[in-house]
């Protein structure tokens, strides 16, 4: 391993790598698919993204254009900076640990500005307090108080889970920076 391999990427190297939308797409695809893929799968998906179509609707020319550019230019460039391991004979591509150096420049992990952890903790404390109050007031108002409190707590949790799921889906539907065309 040379000293350049052990040192971090320079800012110029990072910007050069990320200057190509196809290289950004490669890194995005690999990050979304467990860190490895075949070159054929990469080419198919990138061609589909670029042509705004489904993989099974691609023409052979659309596939070939992307495949050739990945094979000749983009994958060797990523491999030369040790961001990926690329076996051109087998067609296997795998992210390396060094690829994490690019994370600050790529799409952030889907992270909400809202603290769901605190929300659930507050809901837990509220549920506990309501249950204690329910036990205390049951002798005064009868046994029907506890089922109402439990039902209210369950509804609160269901609403929270529904809102969090909706928010998560909304975040997933935004186009990551890797896939935004260079001309925008």
Automatic annotation (TrEMBL):
Residues annotated as transmembrane: 120-142, 148-167
Protein name, UniProt field: DUF7344 domain-containing protein
Organism: Halodesulfurarchaeum formicicum
DUF7344 domain sequence ranges: 15-94
Keyword entries, A-Z: Membrane, Transmembrane, Transmembrane helix
Pfam families xrefs: DUF7344
């Amino acid at each position: 391993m040379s000293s350049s391999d052990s040192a971090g990427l320079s800012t110029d190297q990072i910007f050069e790598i990320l200057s190509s939308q196809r290289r950004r797409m490669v890194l995005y695809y690999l990050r979304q698919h467990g860190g490895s893929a075949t070159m054929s799968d990469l080419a198919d998906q990138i061609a589909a993204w670029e042509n705004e179509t489904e993989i099974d609707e691609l023409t052979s020319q659309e596939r070939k254009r992307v495949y050739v550019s990945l094979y000749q230019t983009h994958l060797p460039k990523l491999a030369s900076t040790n961001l990926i391991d690329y076996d051109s004979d087998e067609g296997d591509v795998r992210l390396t640990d060094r690829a994490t150096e690019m994370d600050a420049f790529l799409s952030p992990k889907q992270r909400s500005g809202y603290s769901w952890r605190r929300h659930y903790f507050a809901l837990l404390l509220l549920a506990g307090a309501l249950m204690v109050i329910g036990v205390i007031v049951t002798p005064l108002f009868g046994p029907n108080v506890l089922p109402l409190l439990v039902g209210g707590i369950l509804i609160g949790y269901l609403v929270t889970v529904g809102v969090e799921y909706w928010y998560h889906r909304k975040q997933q539907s935004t186009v990551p920076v890797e896939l935004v065309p260079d001309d925008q």
